[in-house]
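Below is a filled-in request sheet from our internal design queue. Each sheet records the structural input a requester submitted and the sequence that came back. We keep these sheets so that new team members can see what a complete request looks like end to end.

REQUESTER: design group, bay 2
PRIORITY: normal
MODE: inverse folding
CHAIN LENGTH: 423
BACKBONE (tokenized):
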């Protein structure tokens, strides 16, 4: 029995999907505990490519129980679309369970996400506009609509109308937008509730029972540690707790039950959306990395590229208590020449900052301190063991272990599952 967790160690899009896919092959239960359809996990299985935003990736394994925990914000329209997409491809979703405490993303959340971004102007966050932040706002405000309400038609109508009136006022008076038709929304969402009802179950109880039955449980993280609402680069973060502690609250399970917490990082760094990014650069090498790493995100948004930043990964190691790191996309570095790694930041007064600061203002005028590593020119995508890698690659990996203060247990040399070298 073990509870394992996979967490993004950068700003999301680290290739968590592939690591989750590897670790879920012997998981009996796979859990999503935070975020919503702002996430995007791509899994390559031979010729087949699957893209998920909300569905736990374990759904590809026939007997795996797939749980959506209370910490998730769920857009029922999107989940039903994903269920249909999977069923059309011959994948049965009968093992899906959704916690009744999870909050529902309503149309006004999406509307307000978009309107609020427009109003922020130059200070925009660059959200995915999927209503994530506004839905978590209502949860904290204690005015949200939960899955429990969605599957009870009377409650769904009553709460949609009650909550919706306030939201329409906000939309029309504060944001000067168009009011939404609340009766139509209530009718529409009652139907979604009917379709989703069969999946609803108390996730906390299911996980607890699975623990007692000595099952293998995998928590699949969405987003990344630097996007965490508390320890991330606030305010340029998402609205959920993306770190290990959030898995405990978002799954309704005690923290001591977690055994392995694997952080996923890429050989370089990317970020979509706005916010600080100390090692960002743009030149032909950035373009190569972006292209080779297929860095458009599944939302199709282009991303920003930077060198590996050990300051942020050390931060992730600490705030999550990572027990190991999985390191992806090493192959994208082929033929680019020397490889840079940021080891610390230098403040304008010349002093060195080793830890990521609590406020972005502290980064003003800071520059990254780089160490350079020898590059490599061999095609490593066919390597079958860590030992078979060129010595420059091994030197790079082992130096990063030192810099990050965490063992690197997996090294990715391509998008497929078999292209992950275990150490
Ligand atoms: P996966 O799981 C990368 C970013 C958005 C934006 C900020 C807030 O694929 O790694 P939100 O819509 O969540 O309020 O947006 O967070 N963001 C992600 N960036 N990967 C993700 O998920 C992300 N989910 C949210 O770009 O900057
Ligand atoms: Mg993504």
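RETURNED SEQUENCE:
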């Amino acid at each position: 029995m073990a509870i394992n967790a996979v967490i993004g160690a950068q700003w999301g899009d680290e290739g968590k999907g592939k690591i989750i896919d590897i670790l879920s092959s012997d998981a009996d239960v796979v859990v999503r505990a935070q975020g919503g359809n702002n996430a995007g996990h791509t899994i390559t299985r031979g010729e087949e490519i699957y893209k998920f935003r909300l569905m736990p990736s374990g759904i590809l394994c026939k007997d795996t129980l797939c749980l959506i925990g209370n910490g998730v914000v769920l857009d029922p329209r999107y989940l039903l679309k994903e269920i249909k997409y999977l069923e059309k491809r011959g994948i049965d979703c009968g093992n899906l369970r959704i916690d009744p405490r999870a909050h529902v993303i309503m149309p006004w959340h999406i509307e307000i996400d978009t309107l609020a971004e427009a109003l922020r102007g130059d200070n925009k966050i660059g959200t995915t506009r999927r209503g994530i932040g506004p839905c978590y706002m209502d949860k904290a405000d204690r005015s949200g609509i939960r899955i429990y309400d969605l599957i009870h038609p009377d409650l769904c109508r009553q709460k949609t109308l009650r909550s919706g009136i306030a939201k329409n006022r906000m939309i029309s008076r504060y944001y000067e937008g168009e009011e939404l038709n609340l009766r139509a929304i209530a009718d529409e969402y009652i139907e979604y509730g009917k379709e989703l009802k069969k999946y609803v179950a108390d996730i906390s109880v299911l996980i607890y029972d699975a623990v007692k039955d000595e099952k293998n449980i995998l928590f699949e993280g969405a987003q990344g540690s630097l996007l965490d609402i508390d320890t991330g680069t606030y305010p340029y973060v998402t609205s959920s707790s993306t770190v290990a502690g959030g898995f405990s609250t978002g799954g309704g399970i005690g923290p001591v039950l977690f055994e392995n917490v694997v952080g996923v990082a890429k050989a370089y760094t990317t970020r979509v959306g706005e916010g600080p990014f100390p090692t960002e650069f743009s030149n032909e090498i950035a373009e190569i990395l972006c292209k080779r790493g297929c860095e458009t995100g599944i939302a199709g948004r282009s991303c920003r590229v930077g060198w590996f930043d050990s300051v942020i990964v050390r931060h992730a190691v600490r705030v999550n208590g990572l027990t190991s790191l999985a390191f992806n996309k090493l192959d994208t570095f082929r033929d680019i020449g020397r490889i840079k790694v940021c080891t610390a930041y230098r403040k304008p007064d010349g002093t060195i900052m080793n830890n990521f600061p609590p406020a972005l203002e502290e980064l003003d005028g800071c520059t990254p301190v780089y160490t350079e590593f020898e590059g490599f020119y061999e095609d490593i995508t066919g390597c079958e063991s860590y030992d078979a890698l060129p010595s420059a690659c091994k030197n790079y990996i082992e130096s990063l272990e030192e810099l990050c203060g965490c063992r690197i247990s997996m090294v990715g040399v391509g998008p497929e599952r078999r292209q992950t070298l275990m150490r």
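SHEET NOTES:
- The longest strand covers residues 258-266.
- The first helix runs from residue 16 to 24.
FILED BY: M.R.
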